[in-house]
Amino acid sequence: MTAPNTVTDAALPQPPGTLGLPLIGETLAFFTDRSFVSKRHAQYGPVFKTSIFGTPTVFFKGPEGNRFILSHENEYFRVSWPPSVKTLLGPLSLALQTGHVHMARRQLLVQAFQPRALSGYIPAMEEIGDRYFKAWLAQSQTKGQLTWYPQLRDYTLDVACKLLIGLDNGSKTKLGELFVSWNAGLFSLPINLPWTAFGKAFRNRQGLLHELERLIVQRQAEDAHPAEARDALDIMLAARDEETGEGLSIEELKDQVLLLLFAGHETLTSAIASFCLLVAQHPEVLEKARAEQQPFIGQPLTLESFKKMPYLDCVIKEVMRFSPPVGGGFREVLQDIEYGGYRIPKGWSSLYQIAATHSNGEVFPEPDLFDPSRFDETAERRAPFSHIPFGGGLRECLGKEFARLEMKLFAARLLQSYRWELLPDQDLSMVVVPTPKPRDGLKVKFETL
Fold it and tell me: Cα(378)–Cα(189) distance, rounded to whole angstroms?
């Protein structure tokens, strides 16, 4: 494939594909057909065009396409989201900021995910996890089964609310109720009517911002500069721009916290549920992962502890390859560019693909096989941008280490003390929008070892 460049030959063809119907393009097929992307790649090759969310969009496939997009941020591309996401995240969200503003804000927010901060989050993560494990055990004993996915959503929301904004039992609060409805409308058609998912989410965003402002103002009144940060909000309140010395305004804090709650909840629920499902379906992986945990039973877990769990690390990497919580990312094309002999016009949208790359047999042999050993020390080195569950480049997921910590802590305690059995007569196929989840909610029998 030829090296990417700005276009010098206006006669180059556009990528193959069809733009579909006027206005809506192929948006409905994109939402409803799980094979939408794979069918078109099979027909057109590694690059194809379509039109979704009202914009002509080019899909790129494979590590080289990922590298092209993720390595040319602010040069050929800038971040873009579907209209529903832009509206519901808010104009000051880090996810929508670009250029110098994005980099400056990222430097402020990343302080909440440094090793020292992460280490301080572990006790609260453990306490919340232990509480949920006991509740799941009691529910399974009483009812004979546990529908796990909705419970996992409550668990991750409680963790996110506690460690990001200091709110206990967030899933049972007004903020938690509003958040669930807001989240359901993020990836939807932006039709603002009272009965649509987007319309409900739009109204609930205002309620969320009100609740967040109340919490922020209350925290400021207590102590904006505590001797020891209790959560990410304390860190964000104390953070100052290196150049200007200014902190984040309340308006920006609200949008940034809302983004962090989303990132620390929806995608993590999907990843943890996929871990539970895939490990249960592969007894040999479960046995090996459980054996590795034996020396740590009854011991406090630390960042150092997790460095001594290489197989668990491999399992989590393979879970994130096999069922990545995010399928890809949108970028706006900033100038006419050439890629692979095709001309991609300025103003179009592009999409780098995580899921399609992770399931590419040329990148990961036997991609439909769940095999953690592909990530062990003896595995062959792969091309950059092959395994990108957290994206890459300048916009790699800010909270990826937070997510990895929460997954490892949850998995370690689960493996050490509990067994879970998938119940028969349930549909374990995955609903993929907005994030992958088992269609019937992951029904299990949950017991102590």
Answer: 46
